[in-house]
Please model this.
Amino acid sequence: MTDPWQQRLVELLKGEHDTTSQPGAAGAELIVTDGEGQEVFRAPLARHHRFDKEAHDLVWVRPIAGGYAPVDPATEADYLFSLNTMRRRALHYQSARLEDGEVLLILHTGLTARITPAAGAARTHLWLWDEFCANELDSGETAALADLQEDSWHGPHA
Model:
């Protein structure tokens, strides 16, 4: 049985919450705040996740960080990412619920993680990530990213 917040998380990551956009144009953003409500982390999220099978209060996600325009004029890509900076993150939560269409996780660390629809710069960064994955990665790299088991990468996009 999937909880409503888990269903919503999947919808947000896949971009299924925004029926006005082209498929895949929308996505999710992770916003983490401390006990006083101060933002301590914000990043768009890659489209995959993993609910841990052993620890039922743990979900794995992959924040999208960094990225750069290539300096080599021979490079066809408009924007590239280093996979080693795209480390998976564990959201180990005490409680989880839906709040105003967002997923709210109270983490064991005392921080609060909100997963919201991506907007503005986060949505643009997500689009750049999607383009990078579709055009630069091979099927093995894409599958490994989606599996959320690896943190170290080798090769041209390490």
Q: What stands out?
A: The first strand starts at residue 28 and ends at 33.
